[in-house]
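Sample entry (310 residues):
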Amino acid sequence: MNQILVTERGNGGQGNKFNEPKKLVGINAIVIFFAISIIILGICMIAGSVFAKEGINETVQANMKPVVNVTKNDENNTIEINVKHIRGIKTIEYNWNEEESKTIEGNNSTEINEEIELIGGTNVLSLKITEENGESVTYKKEYTAPNLADIQLEAVANGVKVTVTSEEMIDYIKYRWNNGEEQKVEVGDTKYEGTINTPKGQNRLKIEVVDINNAKSRTEKIVVGDTEPTLKLSAKIQNGKKYFVIDAEDDEEISKIEITQNEGTKQTFDVKSKTYHQEIEMTEGLNKLLVTVYNKNGLSVQRGGQHNNE
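Predicted structure, serialized as tokens:
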């Protein structure tokens, strides 16, 4: 007996002929969806990378400091300063040996070239470069100019002691106070020492030394015309004990006093007053005392004494 096996698949066993295209459409949609998703993700990653790169560049630029190049020119005895920066440079401040600073205006330029004069001997140049956002960078280096005369200034009572040394013969020295009349001193030697009287109050002293080869060394300094403090040492006996008595005075202000007793450790006392008084009890035997008084303008006086306490 013949049997016919019929498997039902919807419409008379031909259902997969209609369902297979639907399945293909669904797979294609999924593939397209994932492809679009990958493209969108790639675009986002590229955009994020560009944004991150720009952010990093901005951070790097914000933290960049001015670039400073300093060159010594022995032919014309100058220091050549070159400063570059991505932002504007506001000022360049410089000084020799921590003395009064001078300022070069940058006017927010991104590059500045400037020459400053060397001074004789060995000296330390300090620079401070400030950019438009207030960020700054410093530079410090020692320079020697043996072919220029070395000028040393020291404040003394009522004047300035000037000491000049040179490898070449010094022809003459010119100086003036503030913008006053220029004075000239003939020298004719490799060394000069002298004292220039200082006007009362604060004044600017400008000095130029010229040797026989016409090489010029210049310096200037703010000087305060002043006299040194007064200091008196005495001894007294009170209640059977002996004392050193210190009395000091200055017309403006005593800044500090240094006291050494019997070769011991030097003691320093800040004063900030016009007068100072102290009594120091003596020990048994020979007593020694050394006292130095400084005023606010750096002038000083020193006295020593000794007393036998038997």
